[in-house]
Design brief:
Layout lengths: L1 E9 L17 H12 L3 E5 H7 L8 H9 L7 E5 L18 E5 L5 H8 L4 E4 L7 H10 L4 E6 L1 H9 L5 E7 L24 E9 L2 E8 L1
Parallel strand pairs: 1-6, 1-7, 2-3, 2-6, 3-4, 4-5
Antiparallel strand pairs: 7-9, 8-9
The structure holds NADPH dihydro-nicotinamide-adenine-dinucleotide phosphate (NDP) and the ligand Nc1nc(O)c(N)c(N[C@@H]2O[C@H](COP(=O)(O)O)[C@@H](O)[C@H]2O)n1.
Protein name: 2,5-diamino-6-(ribosylamino)-4(3H)-pyrimidinone 5'-phosphate reductase
EC number: 1.1.1.302
GO biological process, one term: riboflavin biosynthetic process
């Protein structure tokens, strides 16, 4: 499986405010690029923290891109994936609507009644790991469902874990022309942080857009 992480951060490295309020860091051009990245993916993944904070849809907006997916024999929309150890995704979350297929990767200890409630929305629940989602096992299971190209949009906890488990192939970061601040505001890679074995990145491309800069890296 090929894993691409994409996110937008402020010039001071924050993904959102300290109270986890969503911020439009990208401008029109970058949001359009993100729409294209989604359209080129089999699935778009976030952590449950992002679902609870943003209630995203993670769908492709551009009708031409949706049509092109159909021409390729792909479903109109990429699937959505949530890493959600305790099945905390609200049953009325947008990510569970009928726009696209949704996979919830949960821990084996997730409460049965919560799992059944989420399955009743039509979502496919995959158990991987015990208390917390085992991302390597979860991605293997997704691959067996035909997901070969995975885009990950965040947030910082999930992105850190994917790097810690050596599961990321590419990273694109839009650095927007604003400061957000706040020592507790989410950053690109939160989690426990690395003390050694820091992931190394090879810079592939730099592009100015929306008054900021898009950085594209391959993971070495
Ligand atoms: N600017 C941008 O590009 C983006 C910004 N954001 C912002 O980020 C914030 C949310 O980020 P954050 O709070 O970090 O949440 P995440 O979306 O990273 O979700 C984190 C949660 O995912 C669950 N999870 C399950 N398995 C794992 C695992 N193996 N490793 C890590 N997490 C796992 C955990 O909850 P549990 O243990 O219960 O399963 C964890 O608390 C929001 O404010 C949002 O607006 C989000 C995406 C993009
Ligand atoms: N690329 C990008 N730029 C920003 O400025 C952002 N705030 C985000 N946030 C991510 O996009 C998701 C919302 O997507 P929907 O359009 O609602 O589907 C949000 O949940 C973050 O993952 N991304």
């Amino acid at each position: 499986m090929h894993v691409v992480v994409n996110a937008a951060m402020s010039a001071d490295g924050k993904l959102s405010t300290h109270d986890r309020e969503q911020v439009a860091i990208s401008g029109e051009a970058d949001f359009d690029r993100v729409d294209g990245l989604r359209a080129d993916s089999d699935a778009v993944m976030v952590g449950v923290g992002t679902v609870l904070a943003d209630d995203p849809s993670l769908t492709v907006d551009d009708p031409d891109r949706i049509a092109q997916r159909g021409d390729r024999g792909d479903p109109p929309q990429p699937a959505r994936v949530v890493a959600d150890s305790r099945a905390r995704t609200p049953p009325d979350a947008q990510i569970l609507d009928d726009e696209a297929e949704t996979y919830l990767v949960v821990g084996e200890r997730a409460a049965t009644e919560k799992v059944e409630r989420l399955e009743s929305t039509g979502a496919t629940v995959i158990a991987a790991g015990h208390d917390r989602v085992d991302l390597s096992a979860g991605l293997d299971a997704l691959e067996s469902h035909g997901i070969d190209r995975l885009m990950v949009e965040g947030g910082g906890e999930l992105i850190f874990s994917l790097f810690a488990d050596d599961l990321v192939d590419e990273l694109s970061v839009f650095v927007g022309p604003m400061l957000i601040g706040g020592r507790d505001a989410p950053t690109l890679a939160d989690g426990d942080g690395f003390l050694e074995g820091f992931p190394v990145l090879d810079l592939r491309d730099v592009e100015q857009m929306d008054g900021g800069v898009l950085l594209r890296w391959d993971v070495a």
